[in-house]
Amino acid sequence: MDEQLKSRLLKEAYFLRGWWMLRLAKVYGDAPLVTKTLTLEELYIPKSNRQEIFDQVESDLKEALSLPDRYDDSNVGRATSFAAKTVLAELYLWQKKWAEAKPLLESVINSGNFKLLDSYTSLFDGTTENHAETIFEIQYTANTGQPLLGNFSTTYSAPNGEGYVPGGGWGWIRPTQDLVNEFEVEPKEDPRLTSSIFRLGDDFEGQIFKDVVNGTGFAIKKWAISGANGVEIEQNFPWYTSANFALYRYAEVLLMYAEVLNELGNSSEAATYVNFVRARPSVNMPALSNNLNYDEMFEAIRHERRVEFAFEGKIGFDLRRWGIAGEFLRSSDRWHNNITVNPQWGGNFFKFEDGKHEVFPIPQSEIDKSGGTLIQNSNW
After folding, report:
1. The pTM is what?
2. What region holds the SusD-like N-terminal domain (predicted)?
3. pLDDT bucket at 200, cuts 50 / 70 / 90
């Protein structure tokens, strides 16, 4: 193999291992740390603590920093140096290493390689992929994959009931009234609400959303794709779609940088980068004041991340990273939809126990297979 290609592929492997290990630490906290090919006798190893995993993630991502900045069309979708910098910056945010994250994010911003797309909706409707806002995205092909599951955004998110019927979906992931309330409505309604969520009576290409199954009055619209609902059918599985899924977008780099600036005492400049996201032409929300204090700016960043990245798998980790998951999730009646309320929910639709629910439990099947080498996370 060509040595230059071999070196690049090795760096890509470091990037992927670093990203997966970061996700492992975010989900489980302490977890097995595997850095070599294991024999059958070595297959089950004890957990390493989260900091040890973070250290390995940092090492891996630093190896990937010298990846190419961009690729030709035949290699589209591969990890770049900017993807490595973005994930490494996220790692530093988890560790509150603001000064270390700052130059990485500045490098991405100042590169001139990225910009926000004018149309927010086009980020998700399959009409644009691997574009100027993409930092790193999962490349999907419609006619391959696991039967009956396909791409999660279509299978799990599309309404199960009247409205957006062709292509279908199970409607398992449902917006809450609280999320709907998060979107600003004064002095104008945030256009990202209509781009992200079906509401009763919404017309999508002649399909009127009625929500006859779940009764919450809301459904995810973000990945509702135009024309035959954007679905490419193979073997009669209508929920396969070729729409890619962005793990990191330039909007996140801007909001991470705003967070770093706020934590380093520059709330005024932080507002500038939040406002870049709010000023996307199709969004065009009023600018934040540059006179907000630290707490006000933190709340503005929390809000902006929640509405900008709704259903993109960010908010749960954000709340844990900030240490406010319990406070946020236990808020009285936060999670009751106004249209239909199950009386069994009481005031505790979400049960969050401090010291437990910051991480997920290790799957019992893995503990059993390890013969006791793996130990369950605390309080599970």
Report:
1. 0.89
2. 9-93
3. confident
